[in-house]
Request: fold
Amino acid sequence: MTSSDARSTPSAADTRRRISPGWWIALALILVSAGLAARWYLKQLSEAKLDNAPLPRPMVNAPYVRTSEKIVQRMLELAEVGPDDVVYDLGCGDGRIVVAAAKQFGCRGVGYDIDPERVAEARENVRRNGVEELVQIEQRDIFTLDLSPASVVTLYLLPRLNVKLIPQLEKLAPGSRIVSHDFDMAGVEPDEVVTLENDQHDLEAVLYLWKTPLKRKDASPEGR
Reply:
């Protein structure tokens, strides 16, 4: 190669200098887009696995709606919660029911939710209110739980989910109380139904109370 040929051949450094800043920006955008697309794809796979599970995700079956403090208080009163009770809140959301029970009555409580965001929020609520020694928050599928240690169970689930829980609720000790916000339990006679104004949504709220053993509507008088 002659000296003139060497001068006419661009070096690697010359090539890098000739690449415009716009090219680097375009490359960066391509890489970011690819990363976002990969995250979206993994999210779809994860949700598909959850949706194909034996029990659908609670976010699909029971959208998270906060219960007002007034209704929380009335639910605890209706259940006649005391210091010796163990309160289970199924689908606990931010944990406000078990936190209120522990603060007001000094009783133990466990909140269960399958949504990790709600579990984290509830644990922070427990910590912020200083009831860590009395309240636990667990990320669990409520339909796999042994409810027998509870003396009070609180619910804010859709009616078909309440019905699905009946076999588990029937294992509660006699005299245990179950309180549901807004939704009944088909096939089971409530012991008390209370209607009150819901300040949070400016609507009436209905609370249902059942005491164990549950009274099946289709049971014969002898079987009750």
Notes: Residues 156 and 181 are 5 Å apart (CA to CA). DSSP finds nine helices and nine strands in the chain.
